[in-house]
Amino acid sequence: MLRKAAEDFPSLLTDEDLYLFNEGSHFRLYHKLGAHPIDLEGGRAGTYFAVWAPDAEKVSVMGDFNGWDKKAHPLSSRGRSGIWEVFVPGAAKGQRYKFHVASRYRKYRVDKTDPFAFYAEISPKTGAVIWDLSYDWNDEQWMQARSRKNSLDAPMSVYEAHLGSWMRVPEDGNRSLSYLELADKLADYVSRAGFTHVELLPVMEHPFFGSWGYQSTGYFAPSSRYGSPQDFMRLIDALHQRGVGVILDWVPSHFPKDEHGLGFFDGAHLYEHADPRKGIHPDWDSYIFNYGRNEVRSFLISSALFWLDKYHADALRVDAVASMLYLDYSRKKGEWIPNKYGGRENLEAISFLRRFNEEVFKNYPGVQTIAEESTAWPMVSRPTYVGGLGFGLKWDMGWMHDTLRYMAHDPVHRRYHHHDLTFRMLYAFHENFMLPLSHDEVVHGKGSIIGRMPRDDWQKFANLRLLYSYLFAQPGKKLLFMGGEFGQRREWNHDSSLDWDLLQYAPHQNLLKLVGDLNRIYAREPALHEMDCDPAGFSWVDADNGAQSVFSFLRYAKSTGEIILAALNCTPVARDNHRLGVPRGGFWREIFNSDAKDYGGSGRGNLGGVQSAPLPFHRQPHSLTLNLPPLGAVFLKTGEGRSPESK
Q1: Where along the chain do its domains lie?
Q2: pTM assigned to the model
C-alpha cells in the first residue's frame, strides 16, 4: 500500500528515525511508535498509530473509534523499515484499540496489543488505551538532589514492596489499594520508618497477577489494576516530596507467551529467538529476547529510558541478569547453543547490558542501575570501559544465603559455622554491593524471616534484631522486603495484605522501632555509609572468635574521620567484660544496642559508653572492656582520626 501524501498523513517518523531504529540505536521510540493523539490545524484531531511488524502482509488498527472493524483502518508500510503507520481522524484519548496483524506466513492472523501502549485495559482484558502522559510534577527539589542521594557514598536503605499486597481493603472485597490511595499511605509509612528508597516489584502491565509483574507484556505501561499512568506518577511524586527515591524492577530477561503480547508478533519470531534452545526460558516457560537484533535493542533500551524520563524513576533494578549472561542457564547438555567461540557466555546479552548501562548513565547521570546477578560473573558493577557490565550496584546473593543459613542454626551450633559470616569479607569489595533480604526469601515454602529464627519467641525476635543490626553494620547498601520490618510471621502471599494487625503487639512494634532507628543511624553516621563500597571503610577487630560466636569490626568515615565499632554476640549468653582492641583512645559512646528495652530486649549494655584503656589488644594500641548482651549487637562511636588507608 502506498503511503499517503505528507499533508494528509501527519507521520511522526522521519527517515532518520527509521535508520536509527533499524540500526539498533533509537532509544526514544516511545515518542514515535504506539498511539499518539494529535491535534491538526482546522480543529481536526485524531491519533497516529505506528507498529513494527516486518513480516506482516497487512496490518490494521481496530478499536472503539471504528466499531472494532478489522478492515476500517489499514496501516501503510514504511518500506523496508518494517514499520506500519496510519492516522485515524476522531480516534481519541480513552478509546481502546488493538492491531490486527495478517502475516505473510502460514495464513497467521492475530489481534495484538500495542507493544508501545502507555495504558492498558484492566486484566483479564488485553486491549490498549489511547492516552497521553501529561502531568505537572512537584518533585523539583528531589530531582535536583537525587544525584547525591543515589551516589555510592550516600546511605541507601531500600524498602521493597509489592503494590498489590502491601495493604488491602478487606471491607471492599479485599481489593488492593490504588496508586492514589498508596501515594500518601506508602510515602508516609516509608519516610517514618527511615528508608531512603522504595523498590517496587514490576509495575509494568502483566496479564498474570501471580507473576508479581515479572511476566510483563506492557513495557511502557504501568499496570491499570491500580489506576491511570498519571495516578502512578502521583505516587512517585508523593514519595519524592517526602525525600524517598523510587527504584523500579525492570525485566528484559524474558516475557510471557500470551497471544496478545510480544511473542510470535507478526507470524515470525520478532522479539524472541526462533530456536527454543535460545528463545525459551526453561524455568518460566517464557520467551527470551533476541538481544542481537537491532530493533529489539532499540525497543528495550527505549523502555528503560522511558521510565526514567516520563516517570522520574531514580533507579532500575534488572531482574535475573544471570539468566541473560549464560547460554546454558538452567539447561542440560545438548539443550543450548554455544557462542561463536564455543563458550557458554551470551555475547549478545553482554553487549546489550553494556549499552543499556551506558545509555542510562549518559542520559540520566543522577540515577542508578542495579543487577540481580546470582553468580560470580566478574565486574558486574564496574564501568564498561574497563570491561565491566556497567551497573552501579549488584545484589550480594552470597551474603544473603550465608547469613540466613547462619542465623537459622541454633546458637549452640553457630560456633561450627562461624565462617558463614566471615567469608563475605574476602570478596565484599569486588563489586558495589547491595545486601538484599528480598521477596525471594519469603516465598515458595521458605516461610517468613522471623520464622527461620531459632528457639522461643523472645529469642526469635532477639535473633531478628541481631540479623538486622548485622545488615546495617556491614558494608553495602541495604534492602528489606515489606513485612520484614515488623516481623511478618506468615510467608508472603500476593493475594492478601500484610498482617498489619500484628502491630498492636509490643514485639512487632518494638521491631519496627528498631528498624527505624537503624535506618536513621545508618543515614546519620558517615562511618556506616560513606565507604560502603570502599575497602578503606572496613577492618576486622576479631574475625576468629568462633568459640564464643562473637564478631567485631570497625567502620570508618571518610569525611569526618569518625570510627564505629560493631560487636555482635550471636549466642543467648551475655559476654560481660569482653575485651576488644580499638585504634583510638578516649571515650567510645554507645550509639545503638539491639538489646535495649525499647526494642523488647533485656536492657543489658554499657551505660552509654566505655572509656578505652591503653592496653594493646587485637593488634590495636587501645582496648575496650564491653558488656555484650545476649543475642545482641552494640555500636560504639569515637571522634576524628585516621582510617586504615591513611595510616
Answers
A1: 15-129, 535-646
A2: 0.96
